[in-house]
Amino acid sequence: MKYCSSRGLESGLSFRDVLFAGYAKDGGLYVPEEFPKLTLDELKSMAHTSYPGLVFEMARKFISEQEISSVQLKDLIDNNIKKFTTPEVVEIKQLNGELNIVELFHGPTLAFKDLALSVVGGLLNFYLKENQQNITILVGTSGDTGSSALMSVRGEEHTDIVVLLPHGRCTRTQELQMTTIIDDNVHIYRVEGNSDELDEPIKKCFHDESFVANHNLISINSINWGRVMVQIAHYFYSYFRLCGEVGEVVQLLVPTGAAGNITAGCIAQKMGLPITMVATVNTNDIVARTLSCGDFSVKGEVVKSLAPAMDIQNGQPSTPGDHANEKHVDEKR
Ligand SMILES: *Cc1c(COP(=O)(O)O)cnc(C)c1O
């Protein structure tokens, strides 16, 4: 599989290229050049596959064999998914009648982000080992992205991770999750100020091209294709567990912040999975306004809600390749 920019000015990139990149150079997002289409028979043959098995199936479709062999890919996925507390990873609970809850929080930091980041950590590490390279991941967070990214790369030889968290603005649990990880490659800074102020030094680092090159600085924000790719698997898994018969339509309601998760659902649908989706947002409704009437404008400040991971109000990258957008996407997490 090759990758291109959603704005069309770049093409022919490898999975590795896009895994280590942020925005495309033309300001677009990196996406596969095509979405593999599954027939009904293929869907049926996958219906009893385990969750880790489905992550493998999806990754295999989007990463060419020349890049990672099937044995290596399977090992890498299994080793990183081991950190989940339930063997099936995703649990589905029936509420009443036809209503079910898909539980995506059984990972090491209890955040949905663990599903994708645990595997992305493994993928990064695979290429780094292979090429004997080192990277520095720089994350600004006030919640679950920081903890989840840390857990996925702690102790890895070829990766350093630097996390800035705003003092007093994360939950106590999240702050402890981050500050109690004692590993040589983990560097946590609790900083004074709000997440806008916290973002300033991060922005400066990413804007300094020679600094980025010298430290192999990368950001694993929610636009990272590796994260989206892994998230496709839980749609297939949920579908197979919930459909009466393969081929029937299942409707999924998706709590949506910056829409990375539901983007994976839309890709699953394009691949032929018979699902419909409803994006649900809270009072910070830029995604709903964009989808329903094309209104991508910023409407005031982000309102703090009981679901901070969904508190997104500004999805707009300020400049192409501007990792500062990470703030808008991840700041309240
Ligand atoms: C990250 C997250 C979301 C939002 O996901 P997006 O991909 O940004 O739409 C919603 N709920 C929880 C619990 C999350 O961790």
TrEMBL record:
Domain Tryptophan synthase beta chain-like PALP: 97-315
Enzyme Commission number(s) of this protein: 4.2.3.1, 4.3.1.17
Keyword Transcription: no
Modified residues (N6-(pyridoxal phosphate)lysine): K113
Pfam families: PALP (PF00291), Thr_synth_N (PF14821)
InterPro entries with a match to the protein in the record: Ser/Thr_deHydtase_PyrdxlP-BS, Thr_synth_N, Thr_synth_N_sf, Thr_synthase-like, Threonine_Synthase, TrpB-like_PALP, TrpB-like_PALP_sf
Threonine synthase N-terminal domain residues: 2-79
Reactions catalysed according to its record: L-serine = pyruvate + NH4(+)
GO MF terms, alphabetically ordered: L-serine ammonia-lyase activity; pyridoxal phosphate binding; threonine synthase activity
Cofactors demanded by this protein: pyridoxal 5'-phosphate
SUPFAM superfamilies associated with the record: Tryptophan synthase beta subunit-like PLP-dependent enzymes
Compositional bias annotation for Basic and acidic residues: 323-333
Keywords associated with the record: Amino-acid biosynthesis, Lyase, Pyridoxal phosphate, Threonine biosynthesis
Protein's pathway: Amino-acid biosynthesis; L-threonine biosynthesis; L-threonine from L-aspartate: step 5/5
Family statement: Belongs to the threonine synthase family.
PANTHER family for the chain: THREONINE SYNTHASE FAMILY MEMBER, THREONINE SYNTHASE-LIKE 2
The protein's name: Threonine synthase-like 2
Source organism of this protein record: Petrolisthes manimaculis
Source organism phylogeny: Eukaryota, Metazoa, Ecdysozoa, Arthropoda, Crustacea
